[in-house]
Design a protein that fits this description.
Elements: H1 2-29, H2 40-51, E1 57-60, E2 63-69, H3 84-97, E3 113-126, E4 130-143, E5 147-148, E6 152-165, E7 174-184, E8 192-204, E9 211-224, E10 229-231, E11 234-244, E12 249-260, E13 263-265, E14 274-286, E15 292-302, E16 306-313, E17 316-319
Antiparallel strand pairs: 1-3, 1-17, 2-3, 2-16, 3-4, 4-5, 4-6, 6-7, 7-8, 8-9, 9-11, 10-13, 11-12, 12-14, 14-15, 15-16
Amino acid sequence: MVREGLLSRAGRVRRWGCMMVVGMALVVSGGAFASDDAKRDDAKDGEKEASSSGLANLYIDFRTNYAYVPGAALSTGLGDISLFGTLSQIATLRQLLDRPAVPGRPQLSAPTSQGLGVDVPLTFDLGEALSLYGGFTGSTSYNGVSGWSELAVTGWFLGFQADLYQQNGGAFPTLTLQSTLTRSVPSSPLATTSFNTVVEAKYALDAEEMRGWLAGIQYTHSEIDSALARIGDTTAGYVGGFYQWDNNWKVSARAGLQSFGGAQLLSITPISSYTQPLIRLDLDRMDDDDNRLFGITAQIAWAPKPVYQLTVRTPLYAIRN
């Protein structure tokens, strides 16, 4: 039965991976892109000018992450950095499960933990409408039982972000799709494969897109290698807004609700399902071509106790247009 469960989970992982590859292929093929008819001629002229250089943005979107997760909690949060807190907590639980078994020891519960790490994604911007990225995460985690773990590579990821529709001064908002596949390492009973997809609508209130409204939905599905463990799906919906000053500093805010399906992680006390609020704030320094030069993201997601996450983004450009 356990073997059948593992084969079933492996099949689901392959299906999700295939779906992601197919989605990326459709986006790259150009069938998913659209813009207002009135702007198409201008867009084509802009593409010709951009392609004349023969270059696109190529950079490492270096991110430094910190997460604080209270005991008996897991939380996803929002965006491509959202899984760091969950993976840090799972790394902490892996340390506890690796301890020698002691007869009569009570069932373990997920302890309060902290995680510190870096994401190193190599990112390739194909114009303004499509970005491809892939890289690894190195992190260390802390709990009151075993202290800080050794700094090590704890996962790899790949994904894409694409504008399915661009407002370009029209009546309908820009619609953006982002999908990320994340795999934790090394292989263990709690090794996790996660699929995170975000669809966000951005409605600009001015032609320069310096201010406007945001709304989106995020879905996260996780598979654990062990048939004796599971993490429930997470769905989050949010609304927000953004404002960019003339000096290219930009602030964004998002608030919404996150619904988590609960978790059972081997001999760990089960984590209950919940529906709780979350808040995310972003402060970014952009250049005149809307490339990020620096950014700070702060998130609070209740699970139901508050989970805190802070990310500092310092992109390292090899090519910047």
